[in-house]
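Q: How would the structure tokens look for this protein?
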Amino acid sequence: MSLRFVKGQRNKNHLVWDGFRYQMDKKIKEKCYFRCVLVKSSAPCPGKVHLIGEKVVFDNKNHNHAPHVAEIEVKEKMQQIKERSKTTCETPSQIISTIDVSIFLI
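A: Here is the predicted structure in token form.
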């Protein structure tokens, strides 16, 4: 399974791992500690992942909610639209027509 990142609401990178989104909690030397993005919700999620470089060295898989599969797909498509709008002179409708937006029609 490869590591992926998507932009969060405040333009911060969120780690995507095993269908869940994680935000960086802290970094100590070469080890990065990530916590589930729902850690501050009304029912705090205890999900955590630790990375050294690009290798997952700890994953507690202890989430109290379902994976974020659809939400991650939407964030990835929105990121593609935003990036394309910055690098082309295409109109918004042209950009959207080139990206598979069927997930928005659910």
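The mean pLDDT is 83.

DSSP finds two helices and six strands in the chain.

Upvote if useful.
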